[in-house]
Amino acid sequence: MPQLLHIAIIGGGAAGFFAAIEAKRNFPHADITIFEKNSKVLAKVEITGGGRCNLTNSFDEISDLKQAYPRGHKLMKRLFKRFDYQHAFDWFEENGVPLVTQEDQCVFPQTQDSHSIINCLVNTAKRLGVKIQCNHQLTAITELEDERLLLDFK
Ligand SMILES: Cc1cc2nc3c(=O)[nH]c(=O)nc-3n(C[C@H](O)[C@H](O)[C@H](O)COP(=O)(O)OP(=O)(O)OC[C@H]3O[C@@H](n4cnc5c(N)ncnc54)[C@H](O)[C@@H]3O)c2cc1C
């Protein structure tokens, strides 16, 4: 019988939730858990964009990535080949969050409330069967002889 794939995502921020959701979509039978050290997840997302969550930009007025990312434009160029602002826009709309693009090209949820993004990430993860464990701070990772990883939490 094939061994069950266990995936531990450390940190229940935007990156952790997105990684967990996409991992579960790619490996539906995997057992995936997000471990968050604090008592609540996505705390930073809640305060982004003054509580409205400016989740991306249309890039209509940005012709050169250097303009937007003066110190990281090369990395962003590589990353955008895999997943760019249009992918981000489509991802949230496909996952049930209607978006609006302001005159200044910043993109927000139509509700103008970051909780729409939080609810989308949490509900999508839960619906797919991702487990969420708060109050779990990773303190150590030990590689076992059979190459499995042992995670210690406090
Ligand atoms: C005031 C403010 C406004 C912002 N506005 C915007 C905006 O409008 N638009 C935008 O795109 N970005 C904005 N940002 C930036 C955005 O919030 C971050 O880029 C994004 O939230 C980072 O997500 P992350 O998942 O990488 O990291 P985090 O959100 O920091 O998530 C990491 C998580 O890991 C947990 N963690 C850390 N160590 C451990 C451990 N050992 N064990 C378990 N859990 C652990 C942390 O508690 C945290 O929950 C803003 C940031 C701030 C502070």
Protein model, in words:
By secondary structure, the protein is α/β, with parallel strands linked by helices. It has 2 domains: 1-51 and 113-154, FAD/NAD(P)-binding domain (3-Layer(bba) Sandwich), CATH 3.50.50.60; 54-112, no CATH class. The protein has 6 helices and 8 strands. The strands form 3 sheets. The protein has a 3-stranded parallel sheet with strand order 1-2-6, with helices on one face. The protein has a 3-stranded antiparallel sheet with strand order 3-5-4. A two-stranded antiparallel ribbon has the order 7-8. Helix 1 (14-26) packs parallel to helix 6. Bound molecules: flavin-adenine dinucleotide.
Write the layout of secondary structure elements.
Elements: E1 6-10, H1 14-26, E2 31-35, H2 43-47, E3 56-57, H3 65-68, H4 73-82, H5 85-94, E4 99-101, E5 106-109, H6 114-128, E6 131-133, E7 138-143, E8 149-153
Parallel strand pairs: 1-2, 2-6
Antiparallel strand pairs: 3-5, 4-5, 7-8
The structure holds flavin-adenine dinucleotide.
CATH class descriptor of the largest domain: Alpha Beta
Strand order of the largest sheet: 1-2-6
Number of strands: 8
Poorly predicted regions are none
Instruction: Name the assembly state.
Output: single chain
Q: How many structural domains can be distinguished in the coordinates?
A: 2
What is the tally of helical segments? 6
Helix content: 25-40%
Largest sheet: 3 strands, parallel
Mean pLDDT, rounded to whole units?
Answer: 96
